[in-house]
Specification:
mainly alpha
Length: 268
């Protein structure tokens, strides 16, 4: 008998729960009918903001929350939807045709305001719940920290450039002047007369081999490397160079006798 009562209690409680939910949804739908008398779709969407929203936020609180903020937001969503549902039930009861109490005009006004407030509240809670997920929260915090680092780096670079402004401008000034001189053909090549550098002629060293003679300092070979110097040719100025020699024309043949004009004696 006890098991039968337990099973019956479970069935009756399920039926009672469905009946209560149906009653709440029916009264909410009636109140929405007064708010949207000729728009059936808006009446259905209104149920999403109140009765259905309360059930959804309760399920999200139990199964889909992973952080403290998500639990808090889910609880706020459930409480807001449940209180909104009770408010819609009260409006429908007062405006449903009863004649026992006089209904004030502000009841209808708050019906309009409540619908707008619930729409905005559930939208904000939905976005906030997704944003406070652990992986999304981590990306947001790391992104903010990275942005602060980049901002500080830009600030430091700006301060450094402000200090070095004069020196950098001087370098750019020299580059501009040199470029203008090159464009005008004013640059001249300069020959640097540098001293000759010694060249060490060292013979190739043989690989070292170990012997007892290498241990005595007076047996070490002493050699002086041969030093040769590069020859420098002094530059010859244009005044010392003088006039260049005439070009070489090679061996030219002498005039042949036939080419030499002859004069005949004039016989009188």
């Amino acid at each position: 008998m006890k098991k039968v009562l337990q099973s019956a209690a479970g069935i009756l409680f399920a039926v009672f729960s469905i009946a209560i939910l149906g009653l709440l949804m029916s009264l909410t739908f009636g109140a929405l009918g007064k708010l949207f008398p000729d728009n059936f779709m808006n009446q259905i969407w209104g149920l999403v903001l109140f009765d259905i929203a309360a059930m959804i936020w309760a399920l999200v609180f139990v199964f889909k929350s992973e952080s403290t903020m998500q639990y808090a937001l889910s609880a706020i969503g459930f409480i807001a939807a449940f209180l909104g549902t009770l408010g819609m039930v009260a409006v429908e009861v007062m405006l449903g045709g009863q004649t026992f109490i006089e209904v004030e005009s502000w009841v209808g006004e708050w019906l309009v305001y409540g619908y707008v407030i619930m729409t905005a509240l559930h939208s904000a809670l939905l976005y906030a719940h997704h944003a406070t997920a652990p992986e999304i929260h981590e990306k947001i915090n790391v992104g903010i920290a990275r942005g602060e680092i980049v901002t500080e780096a830009i600030k430091q670079a700006t301060d450094s450039l402000e200090v070095q402004k004069a020196a950098l401008a001087e370098n750019i000034h020299r580059d501009i002047v040199n470029q203008v001189k090159r464009d005008l053909g004013l640059s001249r090549g300069q020959v640097l007369d540098l001293p000759a550098l010694p060249i060490l002629d060292t013979p190739a060293q043989k690989p070292a081999s170990f012997s007892l003679a290498n241990l005595l300092p007076f047996t070490w070979a002493k050699s002086k490397p041969k030093v040769s110097y590069q020859a420098t040719v002094p530059a010859v100025s244009e005044s010392e160079a003088g006039t260049p020699p005439a070009p070489f024309l090679g061996n030219q043949p002498k005039d042949s006798p036939s080419d030499t004009p002859t004069t005949r004696p004039d016989h009188a």
